[in-house]
Amino acid sequence: MLAFILRRIAQSVVVMLVVALISFTLFRFVGDPVASIVGQETSVADREALRERLGLNDPVLVQFAGYVSRALQGDFGISYRLQQPVGELILSRLPATLELALISGFFAFVFGVAFGVYTALNRRGWLSNTIMTVSLIGVSLPTFLIGVLLIWVFAVELQWLPSFGRGEVVDLGWWRTGLLTPSGRASLILPAITLGLYQMTLIMRLVRAEMLEVLRADYIKFARARGLSNRVVHFGHALKNTLVPVITITGLQLGSIIAFSIITETVFQWPGVGALFIQSVQFVDVPVMAAYLMLIALVFVIINLIVDLLYFAVDPRLRVERTPARA
Amino acid sequence: MNRLARLWDSDIAWSFRHSPVAIVAAVVAVGMIFAAIFAPWIAPSDPFHPASLNLMDGFTPPGTPNAFTGNTFLLGTDDQGRDILSTILYGARISLFVGFASVIFAMVLGISLGLLAAWKGGWVGTLVMRIADVQLSFPSILIALLIFGVARGFIPPGQREQAAIWVLILSIGLSEWVQYARVVRGATMVEMGREYVQAAKVIGVHPVRIVLQHILPNVMGPVLVIATIGLALAIIAEATLSFLGVGVPPTQPSLGTLIRIGQQFLFSGEWWILFFPAMALLALALSVNLLGDWLRDVLNPRLR
């Protein structure tokens, strides 16, 4: 198992280096870094001096090494548009995005598993049919449309919930949270539903399909023959065995949630990293784009690693060393 | 005539006739595609021709006459007096154009790389599939956004508006090719072991010809399914990018741009500017999606 973990970590480092290379290429070759710093009246000699000072005349490999070592220290350069260090910009907006993503991921998982189990156990009920039909619409609706329609119904027509922003936030020093104030919690509801709905339908359909598969297995029949109660059979035996693929998908979807938060944050004007990224794409603010790319890649790599490790916790079969017969 | 009769009797046609969902979806999809193609003839007015606009017509609710001009519009008008029905027809045209173009681009790229990876194998195949694996672990909308941003960096600011639609096709196409490459590679590997390919090799048919003329037609079934679902995905991706304000310029609005515009008027009560384009997008994406699902079930005998 240790060898497996070490191999996975080595692979992750390689992936991160490749992403860093792409990010560096963006940073260095899209647009002219000097032109974006100096004014129009700067002389050619001054430009050349700046070029030298920024290390733009060094060999590309040296520049790349410098870029990676600066990135490791959280220095991603200065935003062209906002004229602030990119690392600080992203850090100040990260709590908003993480709060939104984690909460919608949590609810997507809880409701997805609950609805999935319910529809699998009551296949013919009217409630199951309703849930399945609604989930089909949930899969087909684009995320931004869900957000806009929710704003229309709950913010404009019913006026129950706010339609934009984070509400009142509390500064904990290193983390600005909206979870401690009523207006912050109210502001979170619509974006969290928008972000989590697609993932919820995905998890629900997966749990349902897996449950239907498992419920046909022999050991379930045997468990029933032993006279175990429905509750034990359904949750102790069936649900437990559906969880491996569900954890994989949920983990991988957490990455998608962070990516889709770009859309949700734009719809609800949520002051997170995704909204920052969209603005940087609109204004071709390359340092922010390059840093965001690294951040997202890091998130994906870490999530993949955690999902792999969770397998060991959930599936005892994997803990056994591979025997030649199975390989 | 004979051919038509055979088509009518075929497996696919039988399954189509017995699937009400597929029929409804096909009617909606084909109807919208036709309406989009013939928009200049069908639409009540040309919404992007300055001469046909009257600012006095602005904010007319659907189906009721305007208070000043007395003109009636079936789906109402927006702030500049443009007829919503016409903007939807013209917008669907752009959405569908970007959708089809990026699907064709992704398909050609994916099929070529998939065939190459399967036929050549070795480090070429490994490289292609590695890139595919890495790309597949990121959501395609994120990839499209990144490519869009990078491509814009290379285009001089003056030409960005004009080039936007092509950059959009490029970025959506590049974000969707992986599916085709993986499926084509898998199917080609299977076909390459078959007798007819070996026979063709033995009698000395040129490898390029074997791949294109003998193998390719046999792997097109699953590609067609992916392309149909891919069209729905591409339309949604285009709408999303345009909604985020990084898609087509406002002078050539697609359905996504129209929804973006409509959102601004939601709070002042002009719901129709948002609602009808949103429903058009939903109908288009849903019908194409359902057609794709149906096609997948028909062409995949294992699922029956």
UniProtKB/TrEMBL annotation, chain A:
The chain crosses the membrane at residues 12-30, 100-121, 133-155, 188-207, 243-263, 290-314. GO terms for cellular component: plasma membrane. Its main location: membrane. It is a multi-pass membrane protein. It comes from the Bacteria. The keyword Transport applies. One of its GO terms (biological process) is transmembrane transport. Keywords: Cell membrane, Membrane, Transmembrane, Transmembrane helix, Transport. It is found in: Cell membrane. The keyword Lyase does not apply. Residues 94-311 form the ABC transmembrane type-1 domain. PANTHER family: ABC TRANSPORTER PERMEASE PROTEIN, DIPEPTIDE TRANSPORT SYSTEM PERMEASE PROTEIN DPPB-RELATED. Belongs to the binding-protein-dependent transport system permease family. This is ABC transporter permease. It comes from Histidinibacterium lentulum.
From TrEMBL, chain B:
GO terms for biological process: transmembrane transport. Keywords: Cell membrane, Membrane, Transmembrane, Transmembrane helix, Transport. It is found in: Cell membrane. Residues 92-292 form the ABC transmembrane type-1 domain. One of its GO terms (cellular component) is plasma membrane. Coiled coil: none annotated. The chain crosses the membrane at residues 21-43, 94-119, 131-151, 163-184, 223-246, 271-295. The keyword Cell membrane applies. SUPFAM superfamilies: MetI-like. InterPro entries: BP-dependent_transpt_permease, MetI-like, MetI-like_sf, OppC_N. It is a multi-pass membrane protein. Belongs to the binding-protein-dependent transport system permease family. PANTHER family: ABC TRANSPORTER PERMEASE PROTEIN, OLIGOPEPTIDE TRANSPORT SYSTEM PERMEASE PROTEIN APPC. This is ABC transporter permease. It comes from Histidinibacterium lentulum.
